[in-house]
Amino acid sequence: MKLLLLAAIVALGWLLIEAAKSRTKNSSCLVKNKYPPESSCRSTRREFFAFHRVLFDCIKVTTNCRRIYRRNEFHSLESCRDACHYHMAEPSPPPARNGTTSAPGGASGAPGDAEPADPAAPSAAE
Questions:
Q1: Which residues have CB under 8 Å from 47's CB, separation 6+?
Q2: CA nearest 35: which of 66, 59, 60, 61?
Q3: Which of the two residues, 64 and 119, has the higher pLDDT score?
Q4: Could you tell me the sign of the dihedral formed by the alpha carbons of 37, 43, 44, 50, in that order?
Q5: Which helix (H) or strand (E) holds 114?
Q6: Model's pTM, two decimal places?
Q7: Does pLDDT of 48 surpass 70?
Q8: Which of 1, 47, 77, 79 has a CA between 20 and 30 Å from the CA of residue 89?
Q9: What CATH number belongs to 35-91?
Q10: Which residue, among 107, 109, 87, 70, has the nearest Cα to 25 in the 3D structure?
Q11: Burial class, 52, CB count within 10 angstroms (exposed 0-12 / middle 13-18 / buried 19+)
């Protein structure tokens, strides 16, 4: 019974480690494969999935060239997305700044530094 429990713990630990490894940074997803032109490839037509660096997702690729690269050609969309999960998050632009301030609190006199008026506060004209 103890051996069965130990085997279950080892199997569960191995599965968790493998799942965590597939969600880490994988530099092979960003490698651009260089194939000869399609007109020079005489192999049978094949399909595979590869990571697209502009779309931030995996796409289906159809080619006549034989398989040269093993690391970043995936046989299914699911396996491509698992391996390239780290790179699939779209980069966000840096936060916009209103202007440059030289004094603390934004007292530089730039037009974007003025604090908005509180609509609930009584105005000086009243």
A1: 60, 61, 62
A2: 66
A3: 64
A4: negative
A5: none
A6: 0.53
A7: yes
A8: 47
A9: 4.10.410.10
A10: 87
A11: middle
- Please name which of 56, 59, 40 lies closest in space to residue 48, comparing C-alpha atoms: 59
Q: What span, in angstroms and rounded, lies between the C-alpha atoms of 88 and 55?
A: 9
- What is the 8-class DSSP label of residue 113? G
Strand partners, 74: 49
Distance CA 107, CA 86 (A): 42
Under a CB-based contact definition with an 8 Å cutoff, are residues 87 and 56 in contact? yes
Q: What is the mean pLDDT of residues 42-59?
A: 87
How far apart CA 83 and CA 80 sit, in angstroms, is: 5
CB atoms within 10 A of CB 77: 13
DSSP class per residue in 23-83: TS--GGGGPPP----GGG--S--EEEEEEETTTTEEEEEEESSPP---TT-BSSHHHHHHH
Average confidence score pLDDT of the chain: 76
Tell me how far apart the alpha carbons of residues 4 and 23 are, in angstroms, rounded to a whole number: 29
